[in-house]
Amino acid sequence: MGTVTDASKDATGIAFIDKKVTVVFVLGGPGSGKGTQCANIVEHFGFTHLSAGDLLRAEIKSGSENGTMIQNMIKEGKIVPSEVTIKLLQKAILDTANDKFLIDGFPRNEENRAAFENVTKIEPEFVLFFECSEEEMERRLLNRNQGRDDDNIETIRKRFKVFMESSVPVVEYYNSKGKVRKIDAARPIDEVFDAVKGIFSQFSKKAT
After folding, report:
1. With bands split at pLDDT 50, 70 and 90, how would you rate the model's confidence at 133?
2. 34 is known to lie in a ligand binding site
3. What is the C-alpha to C-alpha distance for residues 15 and 38, in angstroms, rounded to an integer?
4. Is 113 part of any known ligand binding site?
5. How far apart are CA 208 and CA 201, in angstroms?
6. Which of 67, 78, 104, 193 could form a disulfide with 73 if both were Cys (CB 3.0 to 4.6 A apart)?
């Protein structure tokens, strides 16, 4: 949880002003069930769910100059700069009356993590990490019918490799600070959420 009074306005054009926020990073490999559990957390604990990928896609769809730049970078296979994603996350946090946020799919790597903390001056309350074997995630992604072009065996394995190389060091960093809450995500959805509820119960009495 962080209180930010004047966070790097020059770097992003946006500054937090005396807004106390609770941020939880949600990390897990492709097919680990993050999206389903984020929806449950929003419903039961009153968090606002911010997906870095959704924010980038919405910015592209808006047709803004920034969106065009993001689209061109993605088309060229380049990684969108951390500052761009962080600016979108900051704006979403400022535009929302809520003070509790799940940030899903970010930080994707150590550079993302360091930039987020440097720019926003916020450290996450904790990191919710969905642990799941590659075999189980592969099975889920191949079985789901969402019409996604990236749900083929070769792409799935590439995505998993990127996750292991880039995101696991972020988990290890926060684990060294005692901020990681690991969930066995290979279990049925209801059992996974029972474990999630145990972690989030401090935030609300609403959960049943």
Report:
1. confident
2. yes
3. 26
4. no
5. 10
6. 78
